[in-house]
Amino acid sequence: MSKPRLVLIGNGMAGVRTLEELLKIAPDHYRITVFGAEPHPNYNRILLSPVLAGEMTLPEIVLNDREWYAAHGITLHTGRQVVAIDRGRRRVIADDGSEAPYDRLLIATGSTPFRLPVPGNDLPGVIGYRDIKDTDEMIAAAREHRHAVVIGGGLLGLEAANGLAQRGMTVSVVHLGRWLLDRQLDETAGRMLQRALEARGLNFLLGRQTAALLPGAGGRVGAVRFGDGAEVPADLVVMAAGIRPNTGLAENAGIHCQRGIVVNDTMQTFDPRIYAVGECVSHRGIAYGLVAPLFEQAKVAANHLAGYGIGRYAGSVTSAKLKVTGIDLFSAGDFMGGDESEEIVLDDRPAGVYKKLVIRADKLVGGVIYGDTTDGPWYFQLLREGRDIGAIRDRLIFGQAFAGG
After folding, report:
1. I need a surface site. Which of 161, 167, 245, 330 has the fewest CB within 10 A?
2. Number of structural domains the chain divides into
3. Is the pLDDT of residue 185 over 90?
4. Sequence-ordered alpha helix ranges (H) in 291-338
5. Order of strands, sheet of 31-36, starting from the edge strand that comes earlier in the sequence
6. Distance of CA 191 to CAs 164, 177, 195, 196, 225, Å?
7. Sign of the dihedral defined by the CA atoms of residues 387, 389, 395, 398, in that order
8. Rounded CA gap, 92 and 34, in Å?
């Protein structure tokens, strides 16, 4: 009998990781076809910021070269976007009119950058920051232009700002929040990070709302105007104000979507022949943007595609171990705390070290670390396992070695 056919839409990290897991446990189960909208094989999107900063090259961030696909008998279509899923005929249709039949379909279309709905957001020189094409555009702009504005003070925005500054641009970061990385850090750690990055030449405009992008010479973007009427020059504007699950293809095919493609604990969609993983997915109402949860999803999806049927994805407890321009940061859980929780804080700003642990009922429920993040994985393990820390409470802030964990 001929092998069943598996089609993967999306050649990114989550989808291809699912194939890697599948090939480990059922290497000959499917005839596999992959469609990728970008003209590249699978690459590590996390490493785009070192490419932008000139610390790495594009070939160095490729995860699976074309020879890998060929060695595993995978038909790879790059630079070809799937525009429709015909669930009745069980086929996908690409933008060049070609079709591929499937017995099982895996959707991993990822996410798209959120573009602020302001006048001028379509001017030349206004881009998102999501893929190799965006990175190439920023590198090219840095050769010819001087002033860059990055909208968004999250991790992606700071990485873009650092990379552009490394390439000689004058960079201003505009952020609506009161401190940087306000989803990963508390205010103290966010302010410490801001001071460290200001010392490296970055400029920050916090609590500012972008009202319009203004054209400059030749019709290219020339300035950013804020809600209070103030303006800053900008030959390049990078939108890094968030992402949105890329669900259009699934929605048009009649697959249930709500803040992402809705999947159950087996990563199966409303249609039992169709699975989905990655940033395009909504699982129990949550869409994950960090790599670790996406890889956990990939393992479960592979288990079910292989026919074992024993894996379950129950959601992820997420932690963020971030390295922003050489500054180590860690956060996990409910690091902001509240009325029913207690905080243990170590604040040694002259040494560039800050720790805050949030405890509730003798259990660690959250934490944030700036500087020395050596004990981050241990704190995350305590949090994830829900262990009672009453016996080591007084020593907990000093780390695993001192607390005897």
Report:
1. 167
2. 3
3. yes
4. 291-305
5. 75-78, 31-36, 5-9, 104-107, 274-276
6. 22, 12, 6, 9, 25
7. positive
8. 11
DSSP string, 162-193: HHHHHTT-EEEEEESSSSTTTTTS-HHHHHHH
d(CA 14, CA 294): 6
Q: Read off the tokens for 142.
A: 């840095």
- Nearest-angstrom CA–CA distance, 98 and 89: 14
Burial of 382 (0-12, 13-18, 19+ CB in 10 A): buried
pLDDT of residue 322: 76
At position 129, the amino acid (one-letter code) is: Y
d(CA 198, CA 196): 6
313 falls within a domain: no
Tokens of 32: 């596999």
Q: 310 — alpha (psi -120 to 50), left (phi > 0) or beta?
A: alpha
Q: Provide the token pair at 304.
A: 């079910």
* Residue at token pair 């393992």: 299
DSSP string, 187-256: HHHHHHHHHHHHTTT-EEEET--EEEEEE-GGGSEEEEEETTS-EEE-SEEEE-S-EEE--HHHHHTT--
SS3 275: strand
Structural domain boundaries, residue 272: 5-112+243-305
* CB under 8 A, 24+ apart: contacts of 213-218: 213/118, 213/119, 213/120, 213/121, 213/123, 213/126, 213/237, 214/120, 215/120, 215/123
Residue 325 has pLDDT above 80, yes or no: no
Cα gap 329→356, rounded to integer Å: 12
Q: Are 92 and 79 in contact (CB under 8 A)?
A: no
Is 61 domain-assigned?
A: yes
Q: d(Cα 299, Cα 17) in Å, to the nearest integer?
A: 8
Give pLDDT tens digits for 351-368: 999 999 999 999 999 999
CA 173 from centre of chain:
19
Residues 108 and 10 placed together within one structural domain of the fold: yes
Residues 30 and 98 reside in one and the same domain: yes
Residue 217 has pLDDT above 90, yes or no: no
Q: What's the confidence (pLDDT) of residue 227?
A: 94
- Measured CA to CA, the distance from residue 217 to residue 205 in angstroms comes to 24
3-class secondary structure, 86: strand
Report how far residue 387's alpha carbon sits from residue 384's, in angstroms, rounded to the nearest whole number: 8
